[in-house]
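sry for the spam today, last one i promise. struct tokens for design, 561 residues
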């Protein structure tokens, strides 16, 4: 009896091992089907799916072969496994369109393949090919970790990123245990483990808390920022985040795919504490009727500086301030209405594209143009730089130190590319009046004349100009790497607007510079204004169009139908 009780656990253990060995082929088949099915679901190239299928079939067939046959075929199996391993990566990296390795699905697919290989080779991992088996398993497992970390980093998904870092530590430990590594390699692996394990703690120590609401003091001004650079950096990161969030709420794709986007009619969003409302016609502000009746209607074309970078509940865009000034200072029986047609990211050429569909049907009596920064690329032919792409912006990442390194590398690459000159139009080079910007203004003037609309064109104001100190200019360089080029471009833009207005006596030139251009205390950044800056801009515009308004509004006119 005691003998039977003694051998019973051994019998049960043997039965369990036999059961597990029979279960391995089914498990391998399941893992292979899952990996191939996942590749089909995310639409990787068919060549990659075929290579995975051949990898699984070859390895599974070798696993089921008799020991004698397996021993004779191991070299060919290892060679085929390595070939079928490299093929999916090559095809996916070379593919275009939807296929892309940098996705969490592909990381999971890599881990499924690593698990498959681990089970397939485990029982037959003799000394002659144990090294190759370990390399295959660690290659697929490590590739999955790299893809997972890259995906989480680009998506700024901190939990997923730190999970990937933990897997990376595990992978390095597995490499140390699986291979006979020389002392130098062990030191390298230990260093990698320490970096992965301690970097989140180091990042947490240097990461400054970010405010959720605008600070009470104007830390966005240069003077305040220099007193507290840490708070300004936190505010600037939040400022960019708020712009992006607002855009998700009120921007929609342009059906014609000509404009960067369109304002979503009837939408609203927040920029910090400022509520941004888009009316049913797609303009910022209150509702307006298409038929204007007796109203004297002014449409203001512009960029984000006209749209309004308002931060507090009481802040208002400068077109609204201008309307209030006109109503208070010009006595007329005719109602005054101003429509804010400014849109972030638009330039003059893009606003001209909107004239026929969005602006002219409103029958404006006056159009005011306040363009500048977004259209500086229209000056490349007369004042060239190497590319028309915008400078890189700082993006939040799971590890702040990595985000800073990434931003500095992108910025260095951008500046290096900007140093090389690009071919310029010989006729326009050095002659701004033949630039694309000047042509766009001439098209605007022609459209206004054709439709009997009074036109006023303004120059552009920035926080710094040629008279600003070097410290003031360099303060804006992190956010605006081409600030010195942009100062010169703004000077050229003023020359264009002033000259074209002089060529067309019916067009009023608006000088926005008095008490504004170069006054950095009235700017949030290089171009966007504080509420005091918007008030000054409205005052400058009114001073230039006052005579024209009095001429057009007095005496009272008959009701228009």
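last one done:
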């Amino acid at each position: 009896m005691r003998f039977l009780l003694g051998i019973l656990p051994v019998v049960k253990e043997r039965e369990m091992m036999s059961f597990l060995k029979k279960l391995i082929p089914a498990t391998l088949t399941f893992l292979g089907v899952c990996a191939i099915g996942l590749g089909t679901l995310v639409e990787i190239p068919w060549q990659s799916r075929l290579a995975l299928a051949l990898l699984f079939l070859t390895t599974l067939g070798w696993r089921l072969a008799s020991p004698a046959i397996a021993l004779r075929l191991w070299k060919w199996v290892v060679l085929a496994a390595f070939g079928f391993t490299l093929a999916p990566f090559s095809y996916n990296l070379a593919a275009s369109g939807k296929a892309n390795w940098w996705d969490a699905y592909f990381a999971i697919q890599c881990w499924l393949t690593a698990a498959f290989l681990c089970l397939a080779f485990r029982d037959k991992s003799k000394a002659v090919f144990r090294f190759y088996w370990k390399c295959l398993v660690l290659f697929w497992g490590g590739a999955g970790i790299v893809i997972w970390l890259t995906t989480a980093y680009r998506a700024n998904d901190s939990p997923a990123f730190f999970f990937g870092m933990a897997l990376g530590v595990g992978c390095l430990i597995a490499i140390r245990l699986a291979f006979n590594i020389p002392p130098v390699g062990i030191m390298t692996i230990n260093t990698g483990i320490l970096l992965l394990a301690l970097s989140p703690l180091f990042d947490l120590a240097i990461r400054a808390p970010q405010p959720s609401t605008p600070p009470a003091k104007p830390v966005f001004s240069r003077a305040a920022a220099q007193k507290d650079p840490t708070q300004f950096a936190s505010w600037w990161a939040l400022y960019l985040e708020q712009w992006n969030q607002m855009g998700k709420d009120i921007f929609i794709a342009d059906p014609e795919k000509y404009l960067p986007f369109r304002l979503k009619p009837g939408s609203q969003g927040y920029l910090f504490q400022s509520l941004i409302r888009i009316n049913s016609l797609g303009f910022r502000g209150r509702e307006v009727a298409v038929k204007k009746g007796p109203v004297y209607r002014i449409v203001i074309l512009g960029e984000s500086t006209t749209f309004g970078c308002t931060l507090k509940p009481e802040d208002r865009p400068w077109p609204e301030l201008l309307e209030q000034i006109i109503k208070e200072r010009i006595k007329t029986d005719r109602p005054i209405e101003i429509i804010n047609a400014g849109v972030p990211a638009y330039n003059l050429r893009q606003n001209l594209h909107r004239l026929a569909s969005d602006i002219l049907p409103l029958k404006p009596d006056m159009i005011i143009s306040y363009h500048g920064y977004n259209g500086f690329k229209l000056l490349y032919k007369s004042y060239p730089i190497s590319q028309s792409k915008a400078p890189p912006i700082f993006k939040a990442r799971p590890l702040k130190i990595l985000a800073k390194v990434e931003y500095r590398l992108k910025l260095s690459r951008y500046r290096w590319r900007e140093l090389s000159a690009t071919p310029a139009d010989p006729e326009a080079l050095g002659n701004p009046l033949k630039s694309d910007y000047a042509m766009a203004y001439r098209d605007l003037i022609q459209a206004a004349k054709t439709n009997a609309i009074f036109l006023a064109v303004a120059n552009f104001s920035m926080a710094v100009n040629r008279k600003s100190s070097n410290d003031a200019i360099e303060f804006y360089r992190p956010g605006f790497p081409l600030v010195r080029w942009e100062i010169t471009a703004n000077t050229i833009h003023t020359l264009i607007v002033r000259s074209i207005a002089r060529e067309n006596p019916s067009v009023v030139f608006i000088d926005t510079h008095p008490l504004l251009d170069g006054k950095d205390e009235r700017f949030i950044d290089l171009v966007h204004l504080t509420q005091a800056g918007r008030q000054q801009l409205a005052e400058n515009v009114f001073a230039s169009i006052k005579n024209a308004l009095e001429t057009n509004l007095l005496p009272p006119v008959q009701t228009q139908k």
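Strands lie at 251-252, 262-263, 268-271, 274-277, 296-302, 336-342, 366-370, 454-458, 508-510. ok im logging off now
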